[in-house]
Amino acid sequence: MTGGSRGIGAATALRLAQEGADVAVGYVNGKEAAEEVVRAVEALGRRSVALRADSADASEAAGVVAAAAEALGGLDILVNNAGVGLLGPLETLSLTDVDRVLAVNVRAVFLASQAAAALMTEGGRIITLGSCMAQRVPGPGGALYAMSKAALAGLTKALARELGERGITANLVLPGPIDTDMNPADGPYASGQAAMTALGRFGTAGEVASMVAYLAGATYVTGAEFAVDGGHAA
Ligand SMILES: NC(=O)c1ccc[n+]([C@@H]2O[C@H](COP(=O)([O-])OP(=O)(O)OC[C@H]3O[C@@H](n4cnc5c(N)ncnc54)[C@H](OP(=O)(O)O)[C@@H]3O)[C@@H](O)[C@H]2O)c1
């Protein structure tokens, strides 16, 4: 699982461990947080390891998948969760910003999925975290982030078609506003985001983790997108 040290990733690591998975916890800067998640997974009776890899680096993005399989003795589920949420007016987004967001949010997902497909056997699962902003951009400032997350829809469908004959599924989860470091429920734009949902509130990381856990067990679901957005797209 990439980005397992905090937020949606940490909640998903724990939820998958509760369901019986051993979990490799990816991180880039949050070593202590990742190690805390490892200890929590181990406390649930599962094996776990923290693996540092910068998704912005192509070789690390692919290499961490092989390292996870090596550490845990195989790979059944890849959760592409690491992401950066860079929002801002069009004229402020630099070429460096464009390259970094596409490298982390898109290229790393492609490379990790490619590496995972080479290692997985029948029943493998590729689950990717996209965003509700790929479907509906509620205001200005989302050009780069929405573009990056929209690319994952095409990738997920193509992976489903290509890997289906090997019994490997690929699905995309589209969170709405979820209370994490990336998007705190008490942040400056939080009330507007909550108001955009039908339920009128932020979601929790655990509510997204529940969907990932469902997809980890789903045998006849592939190439599909699942909004966990409180009705943001309704
Ligand atoms: N929160 C929301 O409202 C929301 C809504 C829609 C979609 N999403 C998506 O859901 C996913 C998780 O979001 P979140 O809110 O849980 O984010 P978060 O709290 O900011 O956590 C991000 C995670 O990704 C890791 N990460 C960031 N950059 C990385 C890099 N270059 N290489 C490797 N790992 C990296 C972080 O590791 P470190 O701890 O080491 O920094 C951390 O574990 C993202 O893909 C995000 O776009 C979130």
Automatic annotation (TrEMBL):
The keyword Oxidoreductase applies. This is NAD(P)-dependent dehydrogenase (Short-subunit alcohol dehydrogenase family). Keywords: Oxidoreductase. Coiled coil: none annotated. Belongs to the short-chain dehydrogenases/reductases (SDR) family. One of its GO terms (molecular function) is oxidoreductase activity. It holds the Pfam family adh_short_C2.
